[in-house]
Amino acid sequence: MDFSLSDEQRAVRDTFHRFAEREVRPRAQALDEEARFPRDLFRRVGELGFFGMRYPEPEGSGADVISYVLAVEELAWGSLSVAAACSMQSLMGTWFLHRFADGELRERLFAPALRGERIGAICMTEPDAGSDLTAITTRAEQRNGTWRLSGSKTWVTSAPVADFFTVFARTGEKELSFFLVESEAPGLTLGRDIDKLGVRASPTSEVALDDAPATCILGAPGQGLECLREILAEIRLMTAALALGVARAAFEDARVYATERRQFGRPIDQFQAVQAHLAEMAVELEAARRLIHWSAWRSDQGLPNANEAAMAKLFASEAGLRICERAARISASYGYAVEYSFQRYLRDVRFTLIGGGTSEILRINIAKGLS
Ligand SMILES: Cc1cc2nc3c(=O)[nH]c(=O)nc-3n(C[C@H](O)[C@H](O)[C@H](O)COP(=O)(O)OP(=O)(O)OC[C@H]3O[C@@H](n4cnc5c(N)ncnc54)[C@H](O)[C@@H]3O)c2cc1C
Prior knowledge:
By secondary structure, this protein is α+β, with helices and mostly antiparallel strands. The chain has 11 helices and 10 strands. It has helices at 7-34, 39-47, 65-78, 80-90, 92-100, 103-114, 224-260, 272-300, 306-335, 342-349, 359-370, and strands spanning 120-123, 139-143, 146-157, 164-170, 176-182, 188-193, 204-213, 216-218, 262-263, 266-267. The strands form 3 sheets. It has a 4-stranded mixed beta sheet with strand order 1-4-5-8, with helices on one face. The protein has a 4-stranded antiparallel beta sheet with strand order 2-3-7-6, with no helix packed on it. Strands 9-10 form a two-stranded antiparallel sheet. It is globular and about 80 Å long. The model has no long low-confidence stretch (mean pLDDT 97). Flavin-adenine dinucleotide binds next to β1, β3 and α11.
């Protein structure tokens, strides 16, 4: 059993760590306070090749899943907001184009999206359909050779800045399908921006479709859920890596704080109660990392991975919340002040318990997968 990273994997991790350290982390607080999407950083992430990591050459770089989760962790260590927006683009925002787009669309949308010059969003959730996506009511009808979509989508990451949308819609009683709708399509309008508790630099809004023409259907009618299942494990692993990155940032900051903060004549890291917090945080971080890398490794080996990815996501996000909570306890009143990052970590990490399937849904999936 070999737990070491390859030279390539270490190089990917180091590249994204340096980038996050120099360009992302110093701006994370301000971006959160201003709830501002950093388009320039998004482009820089594109220049680093992040958006094409999971796509084969020559369009992407064909990196393995372990390298991908390492990159996601480092970006999330810098800022979960930035990492969430970028990770969405690297998978759900572009995956359906990769899988189904023809030559013209690949050149016009997919290639620039991989460079970070165009932004793709995914519209699945609706006001009355979250965990249960089979309950969506957005409809697609084919008229004169064009698919037209009507319905309301919500919680769409990057919608306010997106150039194109992958939209999940009903094409029959039991038939669900994905469509490409471009931002300038008549009938597509952005709803209100959602003012969020966390990941505030990753913009989110509602999207309304009123007889909006799709550029094309992505896949065959009725193939939607099957397509979604193809990337579900990776979406979950990506979300787990987001949780790991922000939790690691909280842990590292808490350690530094505990050595610098003095009470009763000594640094607080000399008190056993604080040491116990740090120890539990270290154990949970390591356990989350092992689960994520084990699942990523299985994916790279072509082994079944649905349940393992769900386990990694469930554990990493729940552990991430506990770790950020412990960091807040160690930093006490300073952790409660908006000017320090501890409160941001705690707000941000909560996103990882929702996106990619809630913990309740994951437990159901995992239990089913055991039988
Ligand atoms: C920051 C952010 C960004 C997002 N970005 C996107 C995006 O880009 N595109 C997109 O389409 N969506 C996006 N979402 C939406 C996200 O995918 C949904 O929020 C998620 O699927 C959960 O749906 P819901 O919030 O409607 O909760 P619900 O499904 O209403 O669940 C409410 C509660 O009931 C529980 N529950 C539901 N069903 C069951 C069950 N069968 N058994 C036990 N418990 C159950 C849930 O676990 C939860 O605790 C985003 C969400 C957030 C917070």
